[in-house]
Every structure is written in C-alpha cells, then in structure tokens.
Amino acid sequence: MPRKTMFLRHATLMRLLAGVTLLCLMETDAVAQVQDSLKRSNTPLVEQLKSAKPGMKEVLSEAEMHKFNNIVETINKRKRFLDQLPANIPGTNNLINLSKSQSPFSGMKDSVMGEFLHYVGNNFGKERVNKLAKSLLVSGDSAGLQKYLGNKLKGFYAIKGKEAFQIPSFESLVDNQFKGAQYSLVRDNTALAPAGWMHHLSASNDMMIMDIPFHFELANLSDTYMPLRYNNLVKVSFDKDAFKGRMQQKLAKYYDLEKYLLNEVDMLSFVKKHFEQELTSQVEGLKSSLVQNPKAMLFSKFSYDELLKLDISQVKEKLMPADMVKGVKEQIGVYEDVLKNRASELSAVQRDSLVKLVTQKTEHLQSLDQLVTKVSGVKEKLAASGLNVNQITRQQQQTNTQTFNRWNQPSTIKEAGSNLLPQNGLQRFFGDISALNIGTFANNKSERSINALISGGLQIEALKKSSLLGGGLGNIKDAGFLKDAGLQSSLTAAVSMQYAQLGKGTTGRKGTTVTVMNANTYSPASLYYEANNLARNIFVGTISKSFSVRKNGTVEAEVSKSATQFRNTASVSPDQAMEQKSALYSYAEDLLQTLSAGVRYQDDWEQIGLTHNAHVAYAGFGYNNPGNPSASKGSLQYDLQLRKYVEKKKGFLQVQVANRNYNYSADGDQRWKNFQVNLQARYRFDRNLTLGGRINQYQLIRKTATGNQKMYVSRKIAAEGQYSSGLFGLHQRSVFSVGLQQFDNVYTQQGGNSSLLLTQWVTSILLQQVQATVSLFYNKELTENKLIGDQLNAETGVGYTIGKKIMMNSSLTYLDNKLAARQLGTRQSINMMILRNCSIGAYIDWRKNLIEPINPYLYGNFRGELTVQYQIK
C-alpha cells in the first residue's frame, strides 16, 4: 500500500496519539517507532476502532465536555506565563496539528499547547505519559491517557503564575522543630506518703521528612521505687492533619483552587452583566429632545443591584413618586384650564409658551413611564429565562459554601494533591495512610475490637478510596482493679497481641469493618500457682457495621466471638504433646458463652425537637477480649436516653435509664443487677438567668440462689442555676446549686443510711483588669451515720497583672470539717516572663492548723511548686 494512503488510513488513530505521546516531548526515535508500527499494521482501521476502548468523548459526559471546552477557550485568551519555551523536538508541530480535532485539546493554540506540555513535563515527568502511550499502542486504550491529561489540563487552567511550571516535590529534605521539654520534681513529706520524691519528664518534637510530618513524644513518671530508666513512654506518630494542612498550603500557593474545582464563575456577576447590556440597549432607544441621556437619568436614581432586586412597583414609585406625578398633573391641568377659559386674555407669545410647557411636562411623564416599562420588560425577560437574582444569590451562596466544605474534605485534598503536585513514592504512600503510631499509644477502635493502651507496639491504617486496611501489634496490660477480680478470672495481667482490620469506609464512620486478633500470654517465672497468669492463646473475630437511618439517624451494630486455649506447659504426657495450642481450632465451640454483640441506634428528630440514644448489648460468660480489658463479659444490658427540647432549644427535659446484669458464677446463679435512672431539666429564661434540676438514683442488687440482696443505693435531688448581671456598675456571674444526697450501703453500714445536704456558690466579678472570685461549699450531715462530716470550704481571691509580664493570683482559704480538720490559709501564685522564650512560675499553698488533723496526709499544711519553662528554638 502506498505510504500516503497508509498515513491517511491511520490519521484518526494518530490523532489519539497527538498531544499524548510526542506532545509530552518524547524522543524523535520513539515517534518514528510509533509511526512505523502503525504503517506495518495489517488490521483494517474499522476493526481497530471497534476493538479500541472508549476515548474522551465516550468517557466524559456532555456537561464535562462543555467544561473542558470552556477551559480551553479561557486558556487561549489569557496572557502567556512563559516568554520563551525550549525548542520543539522535530516532528512535534505536525502532531500538534493532528491533535486539533481530538478532545480535550480541540481548539488549543500551539503556544498554549507548548506551555501545557512544559507544565506537564517539568512537574510530572514523561515516564507516566510514555507508559500510557505504550498501553494505547498495544491495546488501543485511550481512556486512561485522556483522563490523565484531562486532570492535568484542569491543573494547568488553575495555575497562579510561572512558579507553577517548576513545583518542587518537597521544600526541604528534613525540617526539625523541637517543641519543648518539661521536668517536674515533687517532694512529699507528709506521713504515709507512698513516695518521698516524684519525677515527671516530658518532651515533644516535630519533624518533617520530605514534607511528611512526624510527631515525637516522650513522657516519664517515676518515684523513689521506680527509677527513671524503667518507666519511659515513647510515641512516634504520623501527623495526618498536618500532612493535609501542608498540602492545602502548597496547593493554595501554586493554584487557584476555585478554578480547579470549576467553581470560579460568579453567576450573580454574569446576571448583572447580562442585565446591564440588555437594559442599556433598551433604554438608549428612548432618547429625545427632552431626554438626551435616559441611561444617566435612570442610574442617577438607581444602582444595578437596586434595579435587579426591587420589584417594578418599587422602581416606579422611586422613579415617579406619586406626589410628584400628582403635582405635575395638577400643573398641567391649571395650564390647560388657562388655555381653554382665558386664552383671549393672553398674547400669542404667552399662549405658545403655555402650550410648549404643557407638552414638555406631558412628554416628561410619558418618558418616565416608558422608562419604567422598559425596565419592567427587561426584568420580565430575565425572569422568563430563569434568571431570578434573589434565587441566584442564594444558589451562589450555597455553591460557595459547598465548595468551601468540599475543599476541606480529606478526599478532595488527597485527589487535588495527587493531580496537581509532583510527589515521590514515599509521599504517595503516606497520602493513603490514615494512621501510623509506634511505641506507647492509645488505640481506640470500638468496644469489641481494640480499645486499650498499647505499649511497645505498632499501628498502621491505610485508606484507599473507600477501602480500609490496617493492623498492628504490641503489648496490653490490664490495670487489674480489685473490684473486677471476680469478673476477670480468664484475663491475665499482660498479653502480647497482633491484629488486622479490613473494611469499607473508615473506622468510626459509615461502613463495615472486620477485625481479627491473636493474643498470647506466658506463664511467669514463679513457683506459685496463679490462675490469672496461666499461659494461653486467645483468638477474637469482630464485625462492626454502621449505617444511616433517615436524615440524622445512625445505627451501629457489632458482633464478636472469642476462643481461648490454655497451654498445658507443665504436662509431659505423650498423649498431650499434640494438644491444640491455637485457639483458632476451637473458635466454633461454645457459641453463646463466647459471643458478644451490641446494637446502638441514635437519632435526632428535628421537627419535634427530640433526640434519642438506645443501646442493647450481650456478652457471654466465656467471652474474652484482651484488646479491650474493660470489655463486659457475662452481662446483659440496655440503655435508653431521650431528650426533648422546648422553645427552640431554650430548655430541655431528659430521661436516661440504664440496666445492667452481670454474671459472676459459671452456673449463672450469682449475678449483680445494676439499675440507674436519671431525670434532668434545664431552661434559659433570658440571657442572664438559667435554672435547672436533676433527680437520679442508682442501686446495686446481688442475686444468689437464696434470693436478692440490696447492696447499695444512691439517690440525689438537686437544683442549680446560673445568673449574670450588673452589680454596682460591675459585671458579675454566679453559679449556684443545692442538693440532697442519700446513701444506703448495706455492706459497710449494716443497714444504716446517710443523708447529706450539699450547697455550692461561686461568684466572679470583673473589676477592669482585676477579676475577683468568691466560692463557698457547705455539706451538712442529716443522719447519725456520717460519711465526711459537716464541712465548710470557703475561698476568696483576686487575679491581676503587674506590668505586662507578671500575672498573679492571691486568695484566702478556710476549711472546717468537724470530724477531721480545721484550717485557715492563703494561696499565692505568680507567673513571669523573663525572656522572650523563658517563663518562671511559683505556687504556694500554706495552711494553719486550728485543730490537729486526724489524717495529716489528707490535710497537709504546705504545698509549693516552682516551674521554669524554656522554649528551645
């Protein structure tokens, strides 16, 4: 086949390559290779096009194509950023001409195309485009390449200046900022003090590695019995928020983000411009000998905004006030009456003058009326076209708000950074990372997955589109509270665990997450038998699901199953040598006893001003989740909270009920039954006065085979309020409460009960630069079974500044507890800046014993603190 014919048969396919392969400055030998490959092809062009994947026109919608066309048109009209570009590679101009018919580059000027290619080549390199071009050559897939260049075209459209043609992938390789360190030393010389000396050391540091922020923290709390080197807590974490914020700043530096989001069009300005053009053409036709410049006359009375927003009756009233029109018509009537009834008395000149005056005033009114008619016609035409200025203003405000909200969404920032900023592999990797923690950190996922403090651990989470992948490992140490000892027979003091998570969506939001965890404990080096420390393997699988109900409702459901396998390490029997050592093998056993499930439904019914939160949960007696040492087991519970707002949330009424049953025996005959009810109300009468009250009761019942026994009951009735007003020309704010507290503790008081009357009052008064505070707390025992005794706490003090660098607080205190102590004292604190980055603080609390305290450790008479803070730059 002749060379010319072959070239024409493949012209369409070459248009797909134009602006892609060589328009990104591929080498000349690559151009020849592509052309040679096309010429050697024996497949008819029709078959190639049938087998090729869709191009830009098939991929993009009509609206998107319209946007791209507008982008190209705008880019063609704007001023060039670069005065001179590198010389074109031979043969590039021919392919640029071929690209003229291929979207999204249709109609793009050669000079603009050169700038675009320079922008893409400098910032994003040629490797990616070359790879896509080879894919097009092999498979005919133009969609991926066109989408890639289409995104880059949006970025090129939004650049602010020539600095965007050479964007660095990172500002500096390493940037370190030491945030500060603090050391505290406490000396406690009171009787029965657990330790005489206590040390607290903390330090923090921020480091940027290739614009990727990391946060370092060190904390240590030690005393006489726990040396400093044995209690270090170290945490290294990836700061996702700082990463997002830095990317936002970098994008805002080089790009007009409203343009990138295609929301820079001001619809209201468009309507105003269209209205001005249409009105000018209509009004100019009213020129006459009386009205030489009707447009100037009209806009001497109105602005464009007024003409757009006022209705036609308002326009007419302002242009032709009724009183003015009435007066002119009365004058015309008087002149016409004179001409009709007294014409013989007038000279010819007088008659002509009156006739001319009547004609002028009549034509003036007619011109004003025609002007109103023209304005009315233009406004009606706009309305008929759907260009209602008030509606467009509201839509523009909504669009601006939506754009602002969209720009602050992590997904938008991530997508913009990927499309507009050159990134290396490490930056792209951390773009998908939502969490990374190393060392000692809190890992709070959900009640039945991971919710604990992990030490010596690692946590990593990645979010790709809507897919979540995460995992971690580390050690978890339960606090081992004595009150829970009866409920933790299968728990151990410390476990080593590993977990993995997979799901759709993000944790804590709408989506589904599956968590699997494997944990191991090991027998301690002890000769004594300790059931809680027997070596075992624990496997836990959890499914968490959350979804929306109605507009504001959310349902969260979670199901978890555990399995525990003890290791018989002391046995040497051959029959037990092959005993299962992994809990995974027994995961399907004892379903109900090792199952935990919960459902929570919360919603906000705005129309009736009601919110609710309902929760139901069950946990088998054998359920064991080391990932959450405080997770319930052997329990059935339900909770309900209802809150009703009144008068546009000026007040509310809330009811809360919680019932929990805990099993602490294998046969289920011994249970703890906890029941709590809480009623609360509050109402704000005006900006100065708010009153409220609450009633709550909590009771604990022990159920055994012999019956039920009430163990503990607590109830409280309280009223509270807040009042602010002027007092002798000064602003004051007061908070007060009064309540009745009752206790019935069968276990400790053998059937006795206690009642207390509690009152509290706090008032703050602002005296220019001085703030004075008075506080009073009083407790009155009403029964013979006394808990804390009659007690009065009072304090009055002032806070003030001396100069610009010294802040001080001074106060007097009084404590009177008839059962334990009576003290009179003073408190004084001072904080002073001595250098720009150094401050000193001191605090003294001194008290005089008026009687000898029963427990000096609880009622010490001196406490002092000295703090020096120095910020290292």
Structural features, described:
With 873 residues, the chain is an alpha+beta fold. The protein is built from 22 helices and 26 strands. The protein has a 26-stranded antiparallel sheet. A hairpin with a 2-residue loop joins strand 18 and strand 19. Helix 17 packs antiparallel against helix 18. The protein is extended. The N terminus is likely disordered.
Tell me the layout of helices and strands:
Blueprint: H1 3-9, H2 11-17, H3 28-40, H4 45-51, H5 56-59, H6 62-77, H7 92-98, H8 110-124, H9 127-139, H10 143-158, E1 174-187, E2 197-209, E3 212-223, E4 232-238, H11 240-254, H12 257-260, H13 267-283, H14 294-299, H15 304-309, H16 312-319, H17 322-341, H18 348-384, H19 389-407, H20 410-420, H21 425-431, E5 433-444, E6 451-464, E7 467-477, E8 494-505, E9 511-521, E10 536-549, E11 553-566, E12 595-605, E13 610-619, E14 635-646, E15 651-663, E16 671-684, E17 689-704, E18 707-727, E19 730-745, H22 746-749, E20 754-767, E21 770-781, E22 791-802, E23 806-817, E24 821-835, E25 838-849, E26 862-870
Antiparallel strand pairs: 1-2, 2-3, 3-4, 4-5, 5-6, 6-7, 7-8, 8-9, 9-10, 10-11, 11-12, 12-13, 13-14, 14-15, 15-16, 16-17, 17-18, 18-19, 19-20, 20-21, 21-22, 22-23, 23-24, 24-25, 25-26
Helix pairs in contact: 6-10, 11-20, 13-18, 16-18, 17-18
**Amount of helix:** 25-40%
Q: Major beta sheet, specifics?
A: 26 strands, antiparallel
Category by helix and strand content: alpha+beta
Distance between the termini: 76 Å
**Regions with pLDDT < 50 over 5+ consecutive residues?**
1-60, 88-103, 479-491
Compute the number of strand runs: 26
Strand-residue proportion:
35-45%
- C-alpha-based Rg, rounded: 41 Å
- Could you tell me the mean pLDDT? 76
User: Treating each run of at least 4 consecutive H or I residues as one helix, how many helices?
Assistant: 22
Q: Oligomeric form of this entry?
A: single chain
From the spread of the alpha carbons, the general shape counts as extended
